[in-house]
Amino acid sequence: MAHSLVPILQARLASTSPAAAQEGEITEEEKAKNTHLNIVGMVGSIDNDFCGTDMTIGTDSALHRIIEAVDAIASTAYSHQRCFILEVMGRHCGYLALVAALTSEADYVFIPENPPPENWQEKICSKLQQERSMGQRLNIILVAEGAIDQQGEAITAEGVKKVIVDQLGFDTRITVLGHVQRGGSPSAFDRLLGCRMGAEAVLALMEATSDTEPCVISLDGNQAVRVPLMACVLKTQAVARAMQDRNWEQAVQMRGRSFARNLETYKMLTRLRPPSLWKERRDLYGVLGDMPNLFNSLEAPKKSFDSEWLCAAHVSILHAKCTITSADWSLPHPPSFSPRQQNTIWDRDELLGGFNLGVMHIGAPACGMNAAVRSFVRNSIYRGDTVYGIHDGVDGLVEGNIQEMTWSEVTGWVGQGGAFLGTKRTLPDKYLDQIAARFREYKIHSILIVGGFEAYHALLQLYEARGKYPEFCIPMVVIPATISNNVPGSDFSLGCDTSLNEIVEICDRIRQSAQGTKRRVFVVETMGGYCGYLATLAGLAGGADAAYIYEESFGIQELQLDVYHMAAKMAEGVQRGLVLRNENANENYTTDFIFRLYSEEGKGIFSCRKNVLGHMQQGGSPSVFDRNMGTKMAAKAVNWMTEEMLKYRRQDGSVFCDEASTAVLLGLQKRVYQFQPVAELKRQTDWDRRIPLNEWWLKLRPLLRILAKHDAAYHEEGINVKEVEEALD
């Protein structure tokens, strides 16, 4: 491993420097300047098996290869009614297999950190048999190459196939992806990660002193951090020891909270159906005979326990872990109640049942919306709640285009682009009476809106109308989903990663189209409204020479300098150039104007072509990043909504809350996911341009110009972390 080179290199420098000075190869002054060796590392591994970072360079690209293979295989598996077993890399770490399974709805996954139960052969066959009996025509099973059972024995794709064929007789095929996962064009995420980490490593080396310990440039959320190299190595080795000792739970936890929650979320979302409440109802009903004792144990104020009181009261028995609502108590008929169940996803008890949750889209479609809805629906139903899907945004809500969603209804949604619920840009301000009536009709206790800037604006309008409409005094959450990434309060929106990959791939193809043409410049227009996120990051990931955006003003002088700079690069041997422009960068310096300027000023030096990408940027299959982010954000939203509904539930079962903290936007900012009140975000918004006042990615603009050989100054973004912290997901 790379860490083993640290003492060797340091010792080599200590012995070489004096000898070189003695032989006159270097001066005494040079010897004094080079008495120590500073080391900064960056981790490149598709396995993502290094503790101390959320993602290693190469992991996202490998996941792209796996998901592309799974999506392609799913088509042939469906047509032939087959079971496919895919072996993916991961000799000592199951990250690739786990995330691929989570984002492809695989039926079963085998990873080294979490071996299957002793009777896994029976369980997998039982699940596959049930799925076939329910009409499912294909089955996907992922096996990490290092997968093992509870005894530490290897589980191979061949072994899994033998079990399925022998016990079920299913037509089963094996695909070993092998080194396909290491090849191909790097994803936009990996390109950006490499650029950011590389620049941060240079700054870390320049700032290092003789007392600076070796560090690793890591990614924590969306924040570059510097963590001690040896601490990361020791923790990585500790994971291996935990697996050797068969301490599986510890191994999973030491991989980080993100890994552990990915595992638990996968287990819950891939159930064939929600857990049955009959057993819990029966068990709890059997306890009701001792109701007086349970009632007397309450910490709440005591009331007399008689039938008259029970007929009128709503009793919440927290210590009995249930909620009993009795409008007509007449034994032996069981009362209506909602028992608690141990929630393995969040590692604590949660009250199940009794709540009606709504989910809808507002704004333009974006990849990842369907993954978020699937996760929201199944997380809510798992807790015992009812979920209403609101079709076609505000228009559908007003018209009553609302339906209760089921567990099986969202099967297969995670890998689909667009928005199956339908979405429109209509805002609610003109329909508040009708919306309040619908909330009242369906007894909505909480609502989730997945969408872009319009979704954020809509939630703000509902919040500001709370004084007139008590129906809006419920917990409300927005998950940002827009390719423009122009919603304040979050570094990323669902869909922006997929769009970036589409743009980068198209730019690669455009450049390749001029392979036999010398000295050609391409001017490409991207979407994004007034937000230059797509143009800037696509430019950085695609190696653009310039990217023009609204947030960074430019004039004819800057354009002329860029043309001269392009001509100088062509004279040095560069054959192709790439210039990106955000669609609303400048109302006068249009894409056509820039194309004509480069064409005219570059005559005799280079030729120029123009491309407007248009709605191609909104299409395609969701990237792994968007699928995973949508799944996790929706799960977090359900958890928050449940806590708020329990907190503000009244005696009659309704929910009422008018605090600003109950109308929020869920977003990732630097190292943490935060629920931020939309009332506060209102002050951080440029409403005329529909962009945040502060945009984190603007600090990457100098890096784009430096890599394009312009003069610019890049400032560090990394922070020092003395201890190896778990990645906050």
Automatic annotation (TrEMBL):
Name of the protein in question: 6-phosphofructokinase
Pathway: Carbohydrate degradation; glycolysis; D-glyceraldehyde 3-phosphate and glycerone phosphate from D-glucose: step 3/4
Species annotation: Penaeus vannamei (Whiteleg shrimp)
Subcellular location: Cytoplasm
Keyword Transmembrane (UniProt): no
Keyword Nucleotide-binding carried by entry: yes
Main location, first listed in the record: cytoplasm
UniProt-listed GO biological process terms: canonical glycolysis; fructose 1,6-bisphosphate metabolic process; fructose 6-phosphate metabolic process
All copies of domain Phosphofructokinase, residue ranges: 34-204, 357-640
Top-level enzyme category: transferase
Domain of life: Eukaryota
UniProtKB keywords: Allosteric enzyme, ATP-binding, Cytoplasm, Glycolysis, Kinase, Magnesium, Metal-binding, Nucleotide-binding, Transferase
Pfam family, one: PFK
Cofactor(s) recorded in Swiss-Prot or TrEMBL: Mg(2+)
